[in-house]
What does this fold into?
Amino acid sequence: MRVSSHRRFTLRGLAAAVLAACALSATAAATDVPNHEIKDPHYGDVLFQFFQDHYFSAVTGLMVSQQFGRVEHHADEAEVLRGGMLLSYGLQREAGEIFAKLIERGAEPKVRDRAWFFLAKIRYQRGTLAEAEAALAQVGDQLPPPLQEDRALLQANLLMARADYASAAGVLSAVGGQAGSSRNSGTRYARFNLGVALMKTGRADDAARGVAVLDELGRAPAEDEEFRSLRDRANVALGFGALSNGDPKSARTYLERVRLKSLQANKALLGFGWAAVALKEPQQALVPWLELAQRDVGDSAALEAQIAVPYAYAELGAYQQALAGYNAAIAAFARESTDLDESMAAIRSGTMVEALFERNPGAEMGWFWRLGQLPALPHAGHLSQLLAQHEFQEAFKNYRDLRYLTTNLEEWRAKLVVFDDMLATRRKAFAERLPQVRERAGASGLGALRQRRDALAAEIARGAAAADGVAFADAKQLDLLARIASAQAIVAGNDPGLAPARERVRLAAGALTWQLAQGQTERAWRAQKDLQDIDDQIAQAHRRDAELAQAQRDEPARFERFGRRIAALAPLLDVMIPRVAALTKEQQFALQDIAVAELTRQKERLAVYSTQARFAVAQLYDHANAKADAKQESEHVAARP
Amino acid sequence: MMMKRCTFLLSLLLAAGAWAADAAAPAVPATLDNRVQDAKSDVIKLNRDLLVLEEELLFPANTQVALFVSMDVGKLFELDSVQIKLDDKVVASYLYTPLEVQALHRGGVQRVYLGNLKTGTHELVAFFTGKGPHDRDYKRGATVKFEKDTEAKYIELRIQDSMGKLQPEFDVKLWK
It folds into this structure.
């Protein structure tokens, strides 16, 4: 009757691993204030997906980033996260390998401790308990606080698995703390299990302590539904424990605490009635049982109430009502049996699984997801007990995951076709356009450009050698030089009348020669610099051309490689899609088998109750006949003379 | 009869209670379960290979640019949306759901854009809209000029709280 920590391990353990991966302290986690440092943005992106429950995107995204080597700063944390995610998908072998590698390569203690813890958990889930205990023993003192609690719960489960309840109680006492310390969710579960473990040690003083622990839990104020539900379970456990110990008075006290609208309510109502009967107060039993008899007979307690009510009437001596009650119950059981047959037929036809899938959609594969909505089918109530079963939940989760994988694979198949087309288009464009581009580049005159550059360089060299600055004269100076030469030609000769003009021309020519000589150095430097720029541009053009030539050689090979990868992946998809489809079908049949088996059990239970009701009817008739015989006998005796 | 019923009921209850024990009880998974796990594992690996192919084909490293959004603390700013322009062209507009904002608060970093850019100088402008201090509408921008070389470029747009100014701050981090 202990509360499972199996699911809690998965959920809380992984959350803790991730929180620890982000170096969130318990306080920080509680106030939702991050104080972590992301050293690789892609690792942050994985967390972004993970925190939104996009687990498939998170794990595949992480694996892609690992392949590209862009989560190097979080290498170990990323591996713990990947291992945790795969573990939660049920991929125990891969997860185990990841954690074993982390240990082998001597990861830092806090990572190693988490790896040992998860390995212990995997081994526990696989049923290798001794190995699980050995792994757990390797966990040091570097486990983050949220996992320390889970570690203790795992240790207690391992001890309880080998019936060492006293040691389990010792471990749980350390986690569960003192009475009244049940505010934290994990602590409450630990205290519940502690109570159960104490009651199972076989020692009277431990049993009394166990009752006290559960009683404290059963009376504690509960601020959330999870705790209220656990409190109900504690009270039901206490109530039925007291009933089996022959203490109906205490049983009634415990069962009275259970909420009327809760998962445990039906059991509590039934038990409360039996406690009243044990106290010789059958009229008090009728109150809860009549309420219970109104409820859905898909529930075993409600089913039993159908015959418990007439039993109470019989105890009260109301035989007519008892008889009517039993007959009504027999009729109800027969109707229920027919309904169960119809439900089983719906299950076998596949309608139920499809209807459940439609009512419980989800975007991605995920382990937090839980089937909760009943399908829109006649007699869907028959399935409510099924939905509470771990086996059915896990099987349906697999079914849902497989459906998701089918969609995912189909999407990739369509994408691969697009990639192939894209590659063909690129290949064609490259083959057609690149030669044209190179041709244009050649035609635009790399050679001519180089010739012009060489001519310019020669001119600069000549100008530098002449050192008269004429080679570097600007347009205005060239114009002046031409005009002076023209003027010199006009004033040439010995005409004394032109002597002043000759002198002015001479002065002007001298001034221009001076100006040109003065600017020679700067202009020669500028010309050299311009020449260098031209050289750079020519070199750049050459590089581009070389790159284009390289691309012309390399790109087809790159396209070829992509083409080969696409060609290699496509058949994998072609194999995987029917494989997943076949598994989906198989999983559907497995689900249907689980459902039919459950409904068959319900039918068998109905048959047992029906037999009991018939037997009770026969007893009532016997009783009535005996009474009539007795009356007849007494009348006969009285009539004797 | 009552005791018989009671025993039967108890056995039922224990069976129901044993659901918890069954769930926790170590058990070797069924063959079908093993095969389903194998298929899941294979599909996850296949997805990795396909995603790597997709990225290398569509966003080769020499032209790749990835833009990220992160939020440190974020108590002074309630993010509604972000718009990002690269070289004056809108490349991403994103409206956040409460779940996404929560994921950012918890330390997630969103890759909001993945694209290609040629080598050279580029300009990025990001506009953040949401609610600022005192529940007032808030719109702020952040801008950065950056060089794109032949390596993949990762740029993070960060929303931070300035406790000194009691205002949110928006800046850009260029990852090496």
